[in-house]
Write a structure and sequence with these properties.
By secondary structure, the protein is of the alpha/beta class. It has 10 helices and 14 strands. Helix 6 (198-206) packs parallel to helix 8 and helix 9 runs parallel beside helix 10 (304-316). The longest helix has 15 residues, at 131-145.
């Protein structure tokens, strides 16, 4: 079986090429350049590499494994349905913001954490994506949309799945994106979202990979958060905030706490005061993400006047609060709407 070349770091490829073919490190550099900078999809077109070596690579490795099966687009986002080699599928979203792009990557097929308001976990958890499958989402979208300049491009690990539950593949993909001989992404332009896996947040601090961290909070009251997010029963709220703020201190990246007000569930004044008291003086950022309706779920977004009052209370605690504009609602591409579902209704 062919190996997925995107599963390997540049250092790993150098060693692998030496062991397999007796090649010097610069050959791996050349291949890396072709894949990441020139967006090559076949080894046979890497013309500055000897044809005999290209043929060996073509025999032993693959660059592409995802198949673009369907695509939806509106004025604010593009959603891609990628079929994986084993027949499973994931959704990836390109968010369009003036002259800037944000790509929302998936890290798992399905999700095991089953947050009550999110579509991704409703069909259960199937498997982790490999490093190569994560990276390939970006390369496939860039190829499809003819994107070659990544200076105005952000990456967010906020698609299907929990990134920190697939820790190794997530971190390895970030390191490949960051490599200066490839796409050379600044870690400031990469955000990892988590529902709150405390040991993995600690590990991210220890691994000295200072990406931006977005922690899904959605309530500062244990009873409400446990109702909305079952993970709260395993990783205590106060400990989660503590380790998140430690990450903020060690990485020197301000942590964003994500809060989605849901009508009648977590948008009451007592919730606002509890959140303000929990994060007062932390220097953290609260990102209000309006609830995006999910077919089959009995929740509704909080009215704008309720959210306005909620924010006014938080600002009394001198907290920095912003409201994120929803993108892609019309094509079910907004936060919380990605899911495993029938592959119909798309337009290529």
């Amino acid at each position: 079986m062919k190996r997925h070349i995107l599963d390997y770091s540049l250092l790993e490829l150098r060693e692998l090429f030496r062991e397999m073919y007796g090649e010097r490190p610069f050959r791996a550099n050349q291949v890396w350049d072709w894949i990441y900078k020139k967006q090559a999809t076949t080894f046979l077109n890497m013309f500055n590499i000897p044809i005999t070596f290209r043929e060996k690579l073509n025999q032993d490795f693959k660059i592409r494994t995802l198949t673009l099966e369907d695509k939806k687009k509106d004025s604010s986002a593009v959603k891609y349905l990628f079929k994986l080699e084993d027949g499973e599928a994931v959704e990836t979203v390109l968010i369009l913001e003036d002259n800037r792009f944000t790509l929302c990557l998936s890290t798992q097929v399905g999700c095991k954490f089953n947050c009550l308001f999110c579509a991704s976990g409703k069909s259960g958890f199937i498997r982790n994506l490999t490093t190569g499958e994560i990276i390939e989402q970006l390369l496939a979208v860039a190829e499809r949309e003819k994107i070659s300049n990544f200076s105005n491009f952000n990456i967010v690990f906020m698609g299907m799945g929990e990134p920190l539950d697939n820790y190794t593949a997530t971190v390895n993909s970030i390191k490949s994106f960051h490599n200066e001989l490839g796409l050379n992404f600044s870690l400031r332009r990469i955000t990892v979202s988590t529902s709150g896996i405390i040991p993995k947040i600690k590990k991210l601090s220890e691994d000295l990979l200072p990406v931006r961290l977005a922690v899904s909070l959605h309530s500062a009251l244990d009873t409400t958060r446990s109702y909305l997010m079952p993970i709260n029963k395993h990783f205590p709220l106060l400990e989660l905030v503590k380790v998140s703020l430690y990450y903020q201190q060690s990485s020197r990246r301000r942590v964003s706490f994500i809060y989605t007000p849901i009508k009648g569930i977590n948008d009451q004044l007592k919730e606002a005061y509890a959140l303000g008291e929990l994060l007062a003086g932390s220097g953290a950022h609260i990102n209000i993400v309006p609830y995006n309706t999910v077919l089959g779920l009995p929740f509704s977004p909080s009215p704008k006047n309720v959210i306005k009052k909620f924010i006014e209370i938080l600002e009394k605690f001198r907290l920095k609060v912003t409201v994120r504009e929803s993108k892609g609602q019309n094509i079910e591409a907004a936060c919380g709407q990605l899911r495993l579902k029938e592959r119909t209704g798309y337009a290529i």
